[in-house]
Specification:
Shape: globular
Oligomer: single chain
Structural class: alpha/beta
Low-confidence stretches: none
Number of helices: 17
Strand order of the largest sheet: 16-17-15-14-20-21-22
Mean pLDDT: 96
């Protein structure tokens, strides 16, 4: 008995086959081999054709079936993780009307800002838990204004994961979690956000049928089965955006639990057990995978743009040509906690939401030419990234979230002992590192949705914990002092 998980990203589509009994991954692959094309006709635009995702899904499916030798009839459920906030529009024949406008496209920004001002901050935040921002709903506003003929032909709008599920099952549906990512879910009224639909002039009928995140959301059609080499009738029983799904993959379901990633950008995603929001809208709040109106579970998402991209910039520009990332970590570890007074403000990759969309850039402070060397700069760079995480985590704490444990995949910057120890030291949280990824999590989510697992604890009983990092009490003062100095310097940059 096997479970199939897909992770539909903007770079590739990954597929994983998981043995439902042992929880072990038996095959995994991704397509395309080189990064998928993102079409940018103008600066700030980003589009992909939905058929590109389907072809990559087909190729990845063929690979995992071939390498595993699994009989498709033994696959009992399919789960889908996907890039968030994209806009796919289909006509009555369920054909895409144009390229999808994906998450990193910024053309919705002015529409979101205008709506926030005209509808009022209190109305938006208390109902949507966010500003309308640059999400699916505001991307659609651009289409309505600039491509009215396309807008008039829209039958339904959907997210990338909804499109993949539709191609698999022939059924067009979405979830509350997905609508909250679109910025079209009203948490106060527990229904689609009619006030925002009315404001933009959208008919409520463009929203697909709403189904539970964990449920039988359709079954693989004969046509899809023939295309993919699967068996007809396999249930699609789970879908979620990539960040909620990353949290699920790390078995983060309950209030106070936190999932984090630190790739090109960095994310801290914590679960809140009550409907709340940041009055300054410095973090995003969505419905988590197990959210219900009666038992709220909200995913509070902090994103830091300048994370791994700063680390790679440092490798290119501050490290010898022959040094590796582990070598950089060893060199940085030679400097003391706090980098002997050197601080790096890491926001050099555009405007940061946690800074209220200010673009303060990256800057280095406190360098003494006689006492500091490369090791201090490299340590200050990693500390600066961690401190930016902590800066956002304090916003989460102000919202009522208690941060005591951080779950993370054993990847990217979490491979650095210095990075992990600094995060544990400044936050006081225990860090647990796991061996998992989004497509594996989606497969196990499908097992929950299909009733193969009774709950998340059974689904993730086999989750491999690689390491636990505890904060060192003796170092707490040094980390607190370094963080306080960093915040002082950030405040100067913000003036």
């Amino acid at each position: 008995m096997y479970l199939l998980g897909y992770d539909i990203g903007s770079s590739s589509v990954k597929a994983s086959l998981v043995d439902a009994v042992s929880g072990k991954t038996v095959a995994t692959d991704f397509y395309p081999r080189s990064e998928a094309e993102i079409i940018a006709h103008r600066p700030g635009w980003a589009e992909q054709h939905p058929d590109q995702w389907w072809e990559s899904l087909r190729q990845a499916t063929a690979s995992v079936l071939a390498s595993s030798g699994v009989d498709p009839k033994d696959i009992k459920a399919i789960g889908i993780s996907y890039q968030m906030h994209g806009l796919v529009m289909v006509d009555k024949d369920l054909c895409p009307l144009r390229h999808a406008i994906i998450w990193c496209d910024s053309r919705g920004v002015p529409y979101g800002e205008k709506a926030f001002g005209e509808l009022g901050e209190e109305q938006c935040l208390s109902h949507l838990l966010n500003s309308p921002g640059n999400f699916t709903a505001t991307k659609l506003a651009w289409v309505k204004e600039h491509e009215p003929e396309t807008f008039e032909r829209i039958y339904k709008i959907m997210l990338p994961g909804d499109y993949a599920a539709m191609r698999l099952t022939g059924r067009l549906c979405t979830t509350v979690s997905g609508l909250s990512e679109m910025m079209l879910w009203d948490f106060k009224e527990n229904r689609p956000a009619s006030f925002l639909l009315d404001y933009f002039g959208y008919g409520a009928d463009i929203i697909p049928e709403i189904v539970p995140t964990f449920s039988i959301q359709g079954t693989v059609t004969a046509e899809a089965a023939a295309e993919l080499g699967l068996a007809e009738g396999i249930p699609v029983s789970y879908r979620a955006g990539d960040q909620p799904n990353n949290a699920l993959s790390l078995n983060v379901f309950n209030p106070g639990e936190v999932a984090s990633t630190a790739g090109t950008s960095g994310v801290v995603y914590g679960v809140l057990g009550e409907v709340n929001y940041d009055p300054q809208s410095r973090v995003n709040t969505f419905a988590h995978v197990n959210h219900t109106h009666e038992d709220p579970r909200l995913g509070v998402l902090l994103c830091i743009n300048g994370t791994g991209i700063l680390n790679s910039w440092s490798k290119r520009n501050m490290a010898p040509d022959t040094i590796t990332y582990p070598g950089m970590n060893d060199l940085a570890a030679k400097a003391p906690i706090g980098s002997a007074g050197v601080s790096v403000i890491p926001f050099g990759n555009g405007a940061e939401r946690v800074l209220r969309n200010r673009e303060v850039g990256c800057s280095i402070h406190g360098v003494n030419f006689l006492t500091h060397d490369r090791s201090h700069l490299l340590r200050a760079e990693q500390e600066g990234i961690v401190f930016s995480f902590m800066y956002g985590m304090e916003v989460m704490e102000q919202m009522g979230m208690k941060l005591s444990k951080i779950h993370a995949g054993h990847a990217n910057m979490f491979l650095s002992p210095l990075f992990r120890n600094t995060l544990a030291g400044v936050s006081g949280a225990t860090i647990e590192l796991y061996n998992t990824d989004g497509s594996v999590g989606a497969a196990k989510g499908a097992g929950i949705g299909a009733g193969i697992y009774t709950d998340n604890n059974e689904a993730f009983a086999s989750l491999e914990k690689i390491e636990v990092i505890e904060p060192v009490a003796a170092d707490a003062g040094a980390y607190a002092d370094a963080y306080a100095l960093w915040k002082e310097r950030l405040a100067m940059c913000m003036k």
